[in-house]
Amino acid sequence: MMCGVFSQLCCWVKRNPESNKTIKTKRSFNFNKSFNRSIMRSSIGNNGYTMANLLHSDCLLRIFEYLEEDCATLYSCSLVDRYWCQTVIPILWSNTLRIKEIKEKPETFQGYLIINTYFSTLPTETKQLFIEKGINLSPIMNYHPTFNYSTYLRVIDMRCLFLFVKSWIQHTIKQQQYQQNQPSSYNSKQVQFILQELLNHFFKNSPCIHIIRINISDSAELIKNSIEQIPQSKKCLANLRELVSYWDERQAMDSIFYELSQVALFIEKLDLTLFHITVELSSLIRVQRNLSQLTICNKISPSAHFDPWIEGAVGFALMEMSNSITHLDLEKEKFPLDSLSNFSNLVELCLKYTGNENFQQKDWLPLSKISLKKLEKFYFESKSPIYLEIFVDFIKNSGNNLRHITIHGCQICDPEKSNSLLISIAENCHLLKFFDGPIRSENIQELGKLLDSCSNLSELYLHPSTSRCFSPVPRMNFDLLFNEITIKSKNDLEKLAIVHGWKITSNSLENFFESRKRRSFKPIGFYWESSCIVFKGISNICQKYENLGVVQDFKQIYYQKHY
Q1: Which pairing describes strands 495-498 and 524-529: parallel, antiparallel, or unpaired?
Q2: Contact at 8 Å (CB) between 417 and 440?
Q3: Which of 58, 159, 166, 275 could share a disulfide with 248, CB 3.0–4.6 Å?
Q4: pLDDT for 394-438, tens place per residue?
Q5: 216 burial level (CB within 10 Å; 0-12, 13-18, 19+)
Q6: Which residues contact 32 (CB under 8 A, 6 or more apart)?
């Protein structure tokens, strides 16, 4: 929808075009992601208008914001003219501290360039401090960039900042060794100094930071220091939207929670790994006005013990704003399941390891009585015994809008109830696109009913419904289920995976691929887990049909087993 709107906005028009003049077009926007986007200078007739002055500034801004993840296209946009450049640069530099796939390779040149650019925006006296600390900034001492790029920063990701600084150090050392033919290195105090000064610079110059990710050790202390030392940080953090914290730095985090509770009242997302519960955290949650996404991982107690911390001060604070929360993700919590009824506006619910080894059916029973009418995604993963009957009722009550269902458990106490689970999904989840859950080899009719009812299903991950998925893995034949999928699956099915103890034969797999080939279905991804019994040459068959355009991707995958 958005692509269509922007494509129309970018269509070439000419005010009062004359019929006898040919309109020449050389500049083009292509918003179809399957093609490379390009922008080229052009003219329209002799007295025509360029795109830059045809499109309203608000329209341009919306287009550029839509292209935020496409740095190459945004960079091209910045070269069109002065106005486009001034509009694009703030967007291009709003989230520079990111790596799509972070690899522990400090020598990425991208990181070096970004940090070097930020160094160039430092005031002269700060640059002089760097030199006094033995940090070489001489190449950029007298360089003054066109823009103060630090003012545009909106996202601080500490892990990425650390890796980029590491990259800058690596490249700087290489240059010094090449020019001076002598080794050079920076000690840990110098690295900490660099990180602290950069953070101070960001908090001084950026009018607002929207996201802070404290996702590497010792980074909380650096953030705390900047908040306490830089007066501008209070105003800068007033519009904080997201806070992520994964590390155990109690004193520093308590200070951050306290400072944010005084100024940051509009946080939309909290993603916290908790090693302790404090008044400061409770206060931070209690003052929020826009909190809608909450992720909490409990590391307060050993993994074998689930502390009912949610019933304390933090729990009470959450209950006060439960109506505003749309995304709830809890891990290793002994969460009172009956409290979920307070979260009436939930769109996503993720429960990981919420019970313990002593949980019985009565402990899960409250989940079967919950009705969450707006729920679109349900993810459940457990190491403790589970009962499919509970999910049958839960889906009856909450399934009308579900698009995504994941149910993982290696200790299913009523594995024969998988048929009821599939029927409940088929009858209540007509919008379903993703299913990852248990099934038995004899559930052929139930699977067929699900495939008929859920016409939008695009991803299917099937586990054997057994009382255990660990060694020795019980084996189930997948061929009859495979035949049903071959007959009933639609063109929308993009991924099929068999997980844990299935057995398949070459005939069933080839029949499946041949059927999709005859019906000219789009290519599909096929995956099998390492504990499945597959025939020799499965990769050769998959490769054959990949060459024919039937298979998009294929490989052996790993799925965690909960012992």
Answers
A1: parallel
A2: no
A3: 275
A4: 999 999 999 999 999 888 999 999 999 999 999 999 999 999 999
A5: middle
A6: 3
pLDDT band at 52 (very low <50, low <70, confident <90, very high): low
Q: CA 311, CA 282: separation in Å to the nearest integer? A: 12
147-149-153-158 Cα dihedral, nearest 10 degrees: 180
Q: Tell me the residue ranges of DSSP E strands in 374-471.
A: 377-382, 404-409, 434-439, 459-464
Q: Annotate 138-197 with DSSP letters as a single string.
A: GGGTT---SS-GGGG--EEEHHHHHHHHHHHHHHHHHHHHHHHSS-----HHHHHHHHHH
Closest by CA position to 160, among listed 228, 249, 244: 244
The residues, any chain, with a CB within 8 Å of residue 248's CB and separated by 6 or more, are 273, 275, 299
Distant-in-sequence, close-in-space partners of 554: CB < 8 Å, separation ≥ 6: 525, 526, 527, 539, 542, 543, 546
Stated pTM of the model: 0.84
How far is Cα 383 from Cα 38, in angstroms, rounded to an integer?
50
pLDDT of residue 545: 98
Beta strands in 356-491 (DSSP E): 377-382, 404-409, 434-439, 459-464, 476-477
User: How many CA atoms are closer than 13 Å to the CA of 317, on its beta-carbon side?
Assistant: 19
- Residue 265 scores a pLDDT above 50: yes
Q: Are 27 and 39 in contact (CB under 8 A)?
A: yes
Q: Which domains does the chain have, with CATH numbers?
A: 2-92 (no CATH), 95-206 (no CATH), 364-374+386-563 (3.80.10.10)
What does the angle CA 150 – CA 103 – CA 111 come to, to the nearest 5 degrees?
25
Mean pLDDT along residues 506-523: 96
Query: Taking a C-beta distance cutoff of 8 angstroms, is the pair 192, 161 a contact?
Result: no
Distance CA 100, CA 563 (A): 33
Reduced to 3 states, what is the DSSP secondary structure of residue 515?
A: helix
Tokens of 450: 């699900």
Nearby residues of 57 by Cβ (< 8 Å), 6 or more positions away: 83, 87
